[in-house]
Specification:
Elements: H1 2-19, H2 23-42, E1 45-47, E2 50-52, H3 55-62, H4 72-83, H5 88-103, H6 110-125
Antiparallel strand pairs: 1-2
Helix pairs in contact: 1-2, 2-4, 2-5, 2-6, 4-5, 5-6
Length: 129
C-alpha cells in the first residue's frame, strides 16, 4: 500500500510541477511521496526479535510520545538516518521544506519546488525495494 500511495503522490507532484502554479503543493506531494517510499523500504522492520509491519506499530512499541514534540515524522527521520543513510540529507531537507510550505509560508519559489523534486529523485536512488 505504501508504494502505491508513494507513486500516486509522485504523479500529483509531477502534474503540479508542470503547472508551475502550486509550488507549495509540489513540495508537499514530493515529501509525502518520499515518506511513503522510505516507509515501504524500511518496513517490515525486525528489532529485538519483533517484527513491525508499519510505522504505526513501531511508533507504539517505541513509545516516543512521552518525549515532547516527538512524532511519527521524527521517528521516520530517525529510521531513514539509520536504515537509508545516503538518503537522509535529501529526506531531511524535503521534510523541512514541506513543514515550511505547509505551516509557515506557502509562497514557494519554482527553484525550491525543483529542488524538492530532485530530492525525491535522489531518495528513490537509495531505496532497495
Amino acid at each position: 500500500m505504501k508504494k502505491k500511495q508513494a507513486l500516486h503522490n509522485e504523479d500529483a507532484c509531477n502534474f503540479l510541477f508542470k503547472s508551475k502554479k502550486y509550488n507549495d503543493w509540489v513540495v508537499t506531494t514530493a515529501f509525502y511521496s518520499a515518506l511513503h517510499f522510505v516507509q515501504h523500504d524500511i518496513f517490515p522492520l525486525i528489532e529485538n526479535g519483533k517484527t513491525f509491519t508499519d510505522i504505526e506499530s513501531y511508533f507504539s512499541y517505541c513509545k516516543p510520545a512521552k518525549i515532547k514534540g516527538y512524532s511519527k515524522h521524527s521517528l521516520t527521520l530517525d529510521l531513514v538516518k539509520k536504515h537509508i543513510p545516503p538518503a537522509y540529507s535529501h529526506y531531511k531537507r524535503l521534510y523541512d521544506s514541506c513543514m515550511n510550505a505547509r505551516y509557515v509560508n506557502y509562497l514557494v519559489s519554482f527553484p525550491k519546488a525543483k529542488i524538492s523534486k530532485e530530492d525525491l529523485t535522489d531518495i528513490k536512488k537509495h531505496l532497495k525495494k
